[in-house]
Design brief:
Length: 50
């Protein structure tokens, strides 16, 4: 049971990291300033919460 909880936590953390990197890539490639601002705000919430 404990091992399963730890594995689930590790997998959840990997998914969060991948979501962050995917969003960061979209932010870097975005040409529209309004969309980039929205993506930047999303990144900020991922990093700082909120």
């Amino acid at each position: 049971m404990l091992v399963e909880l730890i594995e689930n936590g590790i997998e959840a953390e990997k998914r969060k990291q991948q979501a962050f990197f995917d969003l960061a890539e979209k932010f870097r490639e975005e040409k529209d300033p309004d969309v980039a601002k929205r993506l930047g705000a999303q990144l900020g919430r991922m990093v700082f919460g909120g």
